[in-house]
Amino acid sequence: MSIVSRAFRAAMALVAVAVLAGCAHPINIGTDVAPPRTEANLIQKKVAYTMTDAQRATQAITPGGGGDRISYYPYRDLEKSIRDALRAVYQDVVVIPSATDAAVVQASGAALVFTPEIKTDSGSPSPFTWPPTYFTTDVSCVVTSPAGAEITRVKASGRGEAEFSEFKGEFGLSAKRAATQMATALSGEIVKNEKLR
After folding, report:
1. 26-49 confidence digits (pLDDT tens)
2. Does residue 5 belong to any structural domain of this protein?
3. Domains in the chain: how many in total?
4. Does residue 1 belong to any structural domain of this protein?
5. Which residue segment(s) compose the domain that 39 sits in?
6. Can you give the pTM of this predicted structure?
7. In 3D, which of 31, 36, 46, 51 has the Cα closest to residue 141?
8. Is residue 17 part of a domain?
9. Does any domain span residue 14?
């Protein structure tokens, strides 16, 4: 093998390492675990939450382990958890694209509109493995009337942790645990708030 050929192969290997080091590992942070829904305890109201396609398409990149990063779509991945938190409290839940479009809100028939804002963070002390061993999810909802007047705000957080030995191919396990905890906390905060009955 010529010196030029060896140098070219070495340069290509370095480029490949640099590209891989700069990539974010994709995970899904959603969970299928929902807060319990007991029909007899549901508030007999129809409520809406807002979410746009642009929000669903917004990607987040946060730290993983080993100096790597992870990527995910917070609104798309956590939409089910938010819906499940509302379904654990209310009889009927629908999604609308905006709380400020009076015609859309009126057509939905919702008595309350929840507009969520999601913040996430992650990390791992491991210098060798990329999956996050901890993940935090914070959801803050502005709740408005059909006329658009703010009624109250509710917040909920979740923190999930997972050790490498638990992953078994589920590299977003800590995130899924955070989502489960957040959804349970959100439904609990709604139930406690007298303005949301």
Report:
1. 999 999 999 999 999 999 999 999
2. no
3. 1
4. no
5. 27-196
6. 0.87
7. 51
8. no
9. no
